[in-house]
Amino acid sequence: MTRRIIDYFRKNVGQEITGEELKYLAKDRKEWARRVRELRTEQGWPIVTKNSGREDLAIGVYVLEEDRQAYEHDRSIPDSIRVAVLERDGFRCVECGWHRGMLSPDDPRKMLELHHKQHHKDRGGNTLNNLDTLCNVHHDEQHRRTRRSV
User: Fold this and answer.
1) Residue 134 to residue 131: CA distance in whole angstroms
2) Distant-in-sequence, close-in-space partners of 14: CB < 8 Å, separation ≥ 6
3) DSSP secondary structure code for residue 40 in this structure
4) Among the listed residues 46, 37, 8, 9, the one whose alpha carbon sits nearest the alpha carbon of residue 139
5) Which sign does the torsion angle of CA 146, 147, 149, 150 carry?
6) Which end of the chain has less neighbouring CB within 10 Å, N or C?
7) Residue 112: enclosing H or E segment and its boundaries?
8) What are all long-range contacts of 3-12, with beta carbons under 8 Å and residues at least 24 apart?
9) Who has greater pLDDT, 76 or 100?
10) How many helices (H) and strands (E) does the chain have?
11) What single DSSP character describes residue 128?
């Protein structure tokens, strides 16, 4: 069921998908919403809704913003910590100041992500002091820099 749902999202990146479509794909009236939530929270797919920050979307509409999963270590950050970091950083990239209000089709910056200053492999935790808000461009750049220096 989950495979059919994510495959459909990936074929329709950036497009609005209704709950009715997802319910049909899942062939399960009860569990489809849970599967979509798991794709977002446990598997790291950037699926957004009106309730997750896309005020422009109607209730019951979902969008896969980008065809890529979050880094595995970024998937287990508790929501309370995630919200606290975003609020602390003013819902802006700490590198360039980008925020969702600046979203533009010709700009590669599409979302805000949390970055571990001290990585998990180096015993960095999912704590307020160890996380920064970065746009997807600067987050990718940070990880490229880290890989080059290893």
Assistant:
1) 10
2) 63, 64, 65
3) H
4) 46
5) positive
6) C
7) strand 112-116
8) 5/32, 5/35, 5/36, 5/39, 6/39, 6/43, 6/45, 9/39, 9/45, 9/47, 9/62, 9/64, 10/64, 10/67, 12/64
9) 100
10) 5, 5
11) G
**Residue range 33-65, pLDDT digits in tens:** 888 888 887 788 889 888 776 778 899 999 998
Residue at token pair 């979902």: 62
Retrieve residue 8's tokens: 């459909």
Tell me, what's the pLDDT at 108?
A: 87
Angle at alpha carbon of residue 109, lines to 137 and 64, rounded to 5° = 105
Strand extents, DSSP E, 16-102: 17-18, 47-48, 61-64
Residues 29 and 118: their CA atoms lie apart, in Å, by 42
Distance of CA 38 to the CA centre of its chain: 12
Q: Which amino acid is at 43?
A: Q
Calculate mean pLDDT across residues 108-127: 84
pTM for this prediction: 0.59
Residues 128 and 85: beta-carbon distance below 8 Å: yes
pLDDT digits (tens, 9 = 90+) for 133-144: 999 889 888 877
pLDDT at 150 over 60: no
